[in-house]
Amino acid sequence: MKIMPRQDISLKKHSNYRIGGPAEYFFEAKNPAELKAAVREAKRRGLSIFVIGHATNLLFPDEGLRGLALKVSWDFVKKARGGISAGAGTPITKILAASARAKLSGLEWAGGLPGTLGGAIRGNAGCFGGEMKDVVKDVTSLDVKTLRLIKRPLRQCKFGYRTSIFKQQPGREIILAATLSLQPGGNPNIIRRKIREKVTYRRHRHPMEYPNIGSIFKNVPLAALPAGQQRALQSKAKTDPFPVVPAAYLIAQTGLPGVSSGGAMISPKHPNFIVNVLDARAEDVNRLIALVKKTVKKKFRIELEEEIQRA
């Protein structure tokens, strides 16, 4: 199979943030054969590879990307033994709809979760007390060096708080597909209702009216704080999936919500979102990220850690 990557494709068009310069080369792989061929061609040309999905948690630089931006779009959902199998490029919304039709429960917490299965697994996405590690049975990936397929059971994925082996070893493997372990016998109407509840909550609490890439910072594990701070902040903690202090709460106490830089703004609706209100650039977002980190550290002596990914 001969692959012809396109040149100088605007990453802004492939970004949920609507931010980013051109990719030197760009290719969208719609199946494993195309993905292997694209990786092989990139290696032949000596190009670095950066894998993207729907870019719902990804900040592209204004200057664009050197090398190959490789979009994984293998999109399928099918019922599997004990759950559902899906391609890495499958939107979470599509998997949720399929689970309801198949009377499979256990993924309702992901209602409204943006992006694709591959990105959710890589970052062990979570909300409302659930995480991807709670439902993943196995993950199939492509070894970039050998072009061999690897099938990892749950225990080998090394999931942690918003991380996995795929995130810990960037560039070594590309997620292709996964099997999710779900509970059979659910009531489709109840499953759909629970999903809608999560979607509605996000629409009311999150600034979905503007381009965004979700929560900018990780919540702060309560147990990681000194004893004095734990006592002071315990009443503000929530369980997600263990006790954490919401980054949004810390940012809200600094007076920064509503502050803008260029076309980017710290959302007053949800302070852990930096939204693109007026054709923002990556440098605008980076300036606000630095401001939030500095201000929160000064007020609380807490170092916020970014949840978003950078290209």
How would you describe what is shown here?
By secondary structure, the chain is α+β, with helices and mostly antiparallel strands. It contains eight helices and 19 strands. The chain has three domains: 6-72, Uridine Diphospho-n-acetylenolpyruvylglucosamine Reductase, domain 2 (2-Layer Sandwich); 77-199, Uridine Diphospho-n-acetylenolpyruvylglucosamine Reductase, domain 3; 208-310, Alpha-Beta Complex (Uridine Diphospho-n-acetylenolpyruvylglucosamine Reductase, domain 1). Helix content is 27%, strand content 25%. Strands 6-7-12-10-11 form a five-stranded antiparallel beta sheet. A four-stranded mixed beta sheet has the order 1-2-5-3, with helices on one face. Helix 2 (92-101) runs antiparallel to helix 5 (188-205). The two termini are 28 Å apart. 42% of the residues are buried.
